[in-house]
Amino acid sequence: MNLLVVDDLEAVGVIVAEIASQSGWYSVHCTQAGEILELIHKEKIDVVLMDYFMPGKSGLDVAQAMRESGLKTTIIFFSGMASQIDRTKADELGVFKILDKPLSIKELRKTLSEAQSLQNI
Q: Can you give the pLDDT at residue 83?
């Protein structure tokens, strides 16, 4: 399975991508929301794990752009301020899950496993 990790803090993206790689995922990361659509197509991404609050665009902005372009890619948000995310809108856009930062490695692995099960249906 192919995972794209998006966080404006490169160190976070690198660490999360490495954890996912150790769990058997092919993982790439980027630091800008504007790179997401291009990378999804280029790397044939199955799941996007993105920081919700990034400079310039929110996770909902990106999720909406993904859906408007016809992408069915599984979306997972993570945020240190997860309680501030409009969960109704996230549900409308088909966001799979919202995780709290700091990420628990156990919860991350569990969520990726669940996302992978969705892909196999």
A: 85
CATH (one of 1.10.1740.10, 3.40.50.300, 3.40.50.2300, 3.40.140.10) for 2-114: 3.40.50.2300
Edge-to-edge strand ranges of the sheet holding 47-51: 26-30, 2-6, 47-51, 74-79, 95-100
The CA distance from 90 to 104, in Å, is: 21
- CA–CA separation, 54 vs 8, rounded Å? 6
CA distance 30 to 13: 7
The structural domains of the chain, with segments of one domain joined by +, span 2-114
3-state DSSP call for residue 20?
helix
The percent of residues in the chain predicted with pLDDT above 90, rounded, is 79
**Using CA atoms, how far apart are residues 116 and 85, in angstroms rounded to an integer?**
24
Q: What is the pTM of this model?
A: 0.93
Burial 79-117 (b: 16+ CB within 10 A, else e): beeeeebeeeebeebebbbbbeeebeeeebbebbeebbe
